[in-house]
Amino acid sequence: MSAVPAFAHPMMPQTSHDEMALEAFLVSMRGHVMQEMDPIDRRLVNDLIAPRFAAARGKAATTSAEIRGELEAEPYHQAWLTLQRLYQDMLWSAIGESVDRQHAELDQRRRALTAPKGSLRLDAALPPPRYIAAFDHHRMAGSYHTETAPEDFRPGAMYDRYASTYHYWRNGGWMNDGRGHTLASHIISSYPDLQPRRILDMGCAVGHSTVALKDDFPDAEIHAIDVAAPMLRYAHARAEYMGREIHFSQQNAEHTNFPDGHFDLVISAVALHETSHAAMRNIFRESFRLLRPGGVMAHLEVPGRYDQMGLWEQVRVDFEAHYNNEPFMAGVARTDFAKVAIDAGFQPADVMAGFRQYTPAMTKLEPTLAAVGSPDGRLPMGSWYICSAVRR
Amino acid sequence: MTAAAQNPTLRRTAGDHTVFLGDPIQETLFSMVVALLGELSIVRDRLDAHERLLKSAGLPIGPQDVDAFAIDEAVAQQRAATRDRMIRHVFRALHEKLPPAELRAQNESYAGIFAEVQRS
Q1: Which of A72, A76, A81 has the CB atom closest to B100's CB atom?
Q2: Partner-chain residue, chosen from A17, A82, A322, that has the shortest CB–CB distance to B66
Q3: Which end of chain A has fewer CB within 10 Å, C or N?
């Protein structure tokens, strides 16, 4: 854990002494659960529940769904579930309070930007899709789109702080740009001849990965889209205060208003798992449409793949889907990304899917993706799953 | 306007609200204990700031000194260690009571030895 931070950027909500103390407590508590309880919970699944299941039914359980009922009847697992969820709820509550305390000051700062390098184009007529509007993603009250003040940015401010803390500050500290640099590393490693002049970040949220791409491809024109206006208002102000020229617009990645072949590079970073099965297919099709011949699509996602996960690892992902309001998380872990890309119009020989080692800065690596993720499997920072393709 | 809309404390996150711990009262108690631990953790960090400020200044200090108190990486790590110890203390009961018997190192049942010492 780092010390009380200086401003990461002038839009970032800061913490009072006590606010940082509470966040640090929650990080420590989560660490305690991961280090002390995860191994016991895993033994509960593998050494008790799974053998019991096999003895009773004459066959081994291969999916977490088969053992879920028995597992959730165990007090130890019930406590584990409660602590996982408490961490989320308490963290959002703590960050919400902190943001509300400084909302007026942050709003003033946002409005003080008068000569932007980049741009912000909102569309009040664009409805949030059901997979955004129908529930509060990862238990953030109001999710991405709810506004509680005129020209609100509150969800963006909350998300910026949450994302850093949630990753133990290991996705690039307060910049939270590690995934963006990992995508850039993948591009220069697998597509070294691509000189992207125009890049699109789909589902950009507050621009964590977008800023990384601007830094790694400084000559490119960077566009970033999201369905939620409050996220985009915050993202625009954040980028401006960081001196990065990015063009934000409120659009749905399933169907944008950019012309055919408008981009050299289309990416997304951990956005797909917050959409839906149908939306993901549309996003891949839209990516194909938006690429000029020779252009590249690269979608980065959380590394869990069901075919590589043991029973307990599936249970861990199930928590996200069933109880952390990320319903598509389990689905995306089972989806054949390469097949979705081929169905979207890419040629099989031009599609790759696999794991890329996390890089905090853009790094030239091997050209192929790894078939297996981080050997630990559980460490979210070890590797990310990427599906990329060239449009012919 | 519904009662829920009027009173913000009645609004809650849209989505899942499964009761994990058998009944809502148990779940509430458990959650309140963890929240209490969070509050105590804040107090410990403030005390830590007081102690370090007193030591370095040798003067009476007030809340504003703590509010302005900035810590470096070394202090953050010491606090993290103290915090981990506190969490271990409070969570001790969970680790003691909840893992199933089959996962423990010692499986001997007390009922067994209890009955044994009664037999002469």
Answers
A1: A76
A2: A17
A3: C
Please, how many CA atoms are within 13 Å of residue A124, restricted to the half-sphere of its CB? 4
> Which residue from A minimizes the CA distance to B29?
A82
pLDDT digits (tens, 9 = 90+) for B75-110: 999 999 999 989 988 888 888 888 888 887 766 677
Q: Taking a C-beta distance cutoff of 8 angstroms, is the pair A39, B91 a contact?
A: no
Helix, strand, coil % in chain A, rounded to nearest 5? 50, 15, 35
Contact A106, A296 (CB under 8 A): no
* Encoded tokens for A265: 């590079």
- Give the model's pLDDT for residue A376: 54
SS (H, E, C) B18-72: CCCCCCHHHHHHHHHHHHHHHHHHHHHHHHHHHHHHHHHHCCCCCHHHHHCCCCC
Q: How far apart (Å, rounded) are the C-alpha atoms in residues A239 and B25?
A: 46
Residue among A185, A196, A172 nearest A364 (CA): A185
Q: Which amino acid is at A245?
A: E
Across the interface, whether the CB atoms of B13 and A139 are under 8 A apart is answered yes
Phi, psi for residue B112 in degrees, rounded to 5: -65, -55
pLDDT tens, residue by residue, A13-67: 998 999 999 999 999 999 999 999 999 999 999 999 999 999 999 999 999 999 9
Q: Which residue of B has its CA nearest to A82?
A: B20
Cα–Cα nearest to A48, from B99, B58, B13, B28: B99
